[in-house]
């Protein structure tokens, strides 16, 4: 067996010539040496080496298998600056930060600070009504259990969303109620490496409903019109649009995952005017949360809504029928389609807008079919 490499520290003991190496054990104290010698028991199966001659005071024998130089900074706490010959006491291990009650203390302190800012008005709301702090700390926290535990959303292709600058995310729309837009908003915020916020374009009906109107504004949603979309994109915001509108969200269950018409291509014109890339997005799982088997059109006209859904559970089970089914979701972002290479007048070219609209629609539809083939079941 090769000789053990011994790294000298400090020691004032010496051996006589020809003395045989001994196992590590406590030795007699020399007169005048005020340091206590700590007894070290030999460990079975391991070699131990003694301290070489000429070592500096205070050294202790090291394990024979130790290799490489040891920096003085690696010595246990309390060893540096100790009296010569004193054995270093083992360093105490500090408690991990944020563990135990410390985490709760910080949460409580953060919550109280949040309430103080709300009460004193020390928070920022932009001219669209977007409240970033309220969205991050309250609204996202309310939606996240649905996103993570209930729908178990899996996000793919998040790297296709630019790290900064304006971009337009175009997605399919489904599910009777617009849960897909909210889940996409949480998915972008929680998975993008730069924590980007998605500003959704919503229909007029959203801003006509009490309570929903205020919450939508606070969450960063705005009216689905070209002027608002262009203003957000020029600011470098991430904007989400679902061109199918009510035709997509209210289609029968038998037409699930078949994209409806994408309007007149207004989103393409907006992207061309601002030079923003278009990111296609395909969402699988939302079609089955409320299987729409019928539409009570008379009731819808009386209520002034686009459709009144009839599902296997609603309205037959009352409020319980409004609980969505716990389907397994997948949201995939495709490769961005650049628009900054077109001239300014391209936004007025109807043929170009038609071609780009069709390209985006076909890419989303193709990805939907691919995801449907890959998924194991609706719920797992």
Please render the helix and strand layout as text:
Blueprint: H1 101-120, H2 132-150, E1 154-156, E2 167-171, H3 179-191, E3 198-202, H4 212-218, E4 222-223, H5 226-234, E5 238-241, H6 246-249, H7 266-274, E6 278-284, E7 294-295, H8 297-303, E8 309-310, E9 330-333, H9 350-374
Parallel strand pairs: 1-9, 2-5, 2-6, 3-4, 3-5
Antiparallel strand pairs: 6-9, 7-8
Could you name the key traits of this structure?
380 residues, alpha/beta, seven-stranded mixed sheet, two-stranded antiparallel ribbon, 9 helices, 9 strands, globular, disordered N terminus
- The helix count comes to 9
Low-confidence stretches: 1-100
Query: Sheet bearing the most strands, described?
Result: 7 strands, mixed
Cα distance spanning the termini? 58 Å
pLDDT averaged over residues: 80
**How many beta-strand elements?**
9
Structural class comes to: alpha/beta
What fraction of the residues are assigned to beta strands by DSSP?
5-15%
Q: If you compute it from the alpha carbons, what radius of gyration comes out, rounded to the nearest whole angstrom?
A: 34 Å
Order of helices and strands: HHEEHEHEHEHHEEHEEH
The helical percent reads: 25-40%
- Note the overall shape: globular
- Provide the spatial order of strands within the biggest beta sheet: 1-9-6-2-5-3-4
């Amino acid at each position: 067996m090769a000789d053990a490499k011994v790294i000298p520290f400090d020691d004032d003991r010496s051996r006589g010539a020809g003395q045989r190496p001994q196992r590590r054990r406590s030795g007699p104290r020399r007169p005048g040496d005020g340091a206590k010698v700590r007894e070290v028991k030999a460990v079975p199966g391991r070699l131990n080496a003694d301290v070489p001659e000429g070592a500096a005071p205070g050294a202790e024998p090291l394990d024979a298998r130790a290799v490489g130089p040891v920096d003085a900074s690696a010595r246990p706490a309390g060893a540096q600056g100790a009296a010569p010959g004193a054995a270093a006491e083992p360093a105490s291990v500090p408690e991990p930060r944020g563990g135990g009650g410390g985490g709760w203390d910080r949460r409580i302190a953060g919550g109280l600070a949040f309430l103080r800012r709300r009460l004193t008005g020390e928070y920022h709301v932009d001219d669209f009504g977007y409240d970033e702090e309220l969205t991050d700390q309250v609204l996202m926290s309310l939606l996240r259990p649905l996103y993570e535990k209930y729908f178990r959303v899996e996000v793919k292709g998040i790297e296709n969303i630019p790290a900064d600058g304006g971009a337009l995310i175009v997605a399919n729309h489904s599910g009777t109620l617009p849960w897909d837009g909210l889940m996409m908003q949480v998915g972008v915020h929680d998975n993008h490496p730069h924590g980007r916020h998605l500003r959704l374009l919503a229909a007029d009906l959203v801003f006509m409903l009490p309570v929903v109107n205020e919450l939508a504004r606070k969450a960063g949603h705005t009216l689905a019109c070209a002027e608002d979309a262009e203003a957000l994109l020029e600011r470098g915001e991430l904007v989400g649009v679902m061109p199918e509108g009510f035709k997509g969200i209210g289609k029968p269950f038998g037409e699930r995952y078949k994209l409806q018409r994408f309007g007149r291509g207004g989103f393409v014109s907006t992207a061309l005017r601002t030079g923003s890339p278009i990111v296609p997005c395909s969402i699988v799982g939302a079609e089955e949360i409320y299987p729409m088997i019928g539409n009570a059109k008379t009731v819808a006209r009386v209520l002034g809504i686009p459709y009144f859904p009839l599902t296997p559970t609603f309205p037959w089970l009352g409020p319980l029928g409004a609980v969505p089914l716990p389907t397994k979701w997948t949201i995939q972002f495709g490769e961005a389609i650049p628009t900054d290479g077109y001239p300014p007048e391209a936004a007025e070219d109807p043929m170009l807008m038609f071609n780009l609209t069709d390209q985006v629609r076909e890419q989303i539809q193709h990805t939907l079919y691919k995801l449907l083939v890959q998924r194991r079941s609706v719920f797992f």
